[in-house]
Amino acid sequence: MTLILLAISLSVALCVLAFNFAIYALPVMVGIAAFQHVHSTGAGFSLSALAALGSAALSVGLVIAVLGFARHPFLRLAALAMFAAPAAVAGYALAHGLMKYALDSAIVLNLLCGICGLIVAVAAMINLSALGEDVLSR
Questions:
Q1: Mean per-residue pLDDT for 105-121?
Q2: Are the C-beta atoms of residues 114 and 92 closer than 8 Å to each other?
Q3: So where does this one cross the membrane (predicted)?
Q4: Domain carrying residue 57
C-alpha cells in the first residue's frame, strides 16, 4: 500500500513539475538555443550556461517590457501570445505523451491534448501578466 501511495504522489509531483516547466517554454527554448550556439563556437560549458541563463532572462524581460510600455492592446496581446504559443505546444506534447497509450480514440486524444495545451497557454499568460505587474509596480 505504501508503494502505491508513493507512486501516486511522485506521479502528481512530476505532473506539477512538468506543468511548471511547460509554462516557461519560451525562456527554456531561447536558453537552449543560446547554449547550443555559444557552445558550438568553442566556448566552455560555464560560459555557455551563463549565456543561456542571460538570454532566457532577457526573453522574459523583453516580453515584460512590451507589456509595461505598450499602449496598444493588440501589441500587448501579441507579446503574450509569443510567450504562450510555445507553452501551448509544450502542454499539448505533455498531455499527448501521458495519454497516448491510455486512449484508443485519436479524436478524443487530440481534443484532450488541445484542451491541455490551451490550459497551459492561459496559465502562462496569467503567470507572465502577474510577474509583469509585480515587476512594473515597483
A1: 91
A2: yes
A3: 42-67, 74-95, 107-128
A4: 2-136
Residues in the chain: 138
Count other Cβ atoms within 10 Å, centred on residue 29.
15
Residue identified by cell 484542451 is: 115
AA letter at 55 = S
Our count of domains for the chain comes to 1
pLDDT score, position 138: 67
Cα of 3 vs its chain's centroid, Å:
31
pLDDT of residue 137 exceeding 80, the answer is no
Distance of CA 94 to the CA centre of its chain: 11
In the chain, the amino acid numbered 79 is A
Alpha helices (H) along the chain: 2-23, 25-40, 45-69, 73-99, 106-136
Instruction: Round to whole Å and give the CA distance between 123 and 91.
Output: 10
Q: Which of 49, 2, 33, 18 is nearest to 120 (CA)?
A: 18
The set of residues, in sequence order, having a beta carbon less than 8 Å from that of 104 and lying 6+ positions away, is none
pTM, 2 dp: 0.78
Whose grid coordinates read 515584460? 64
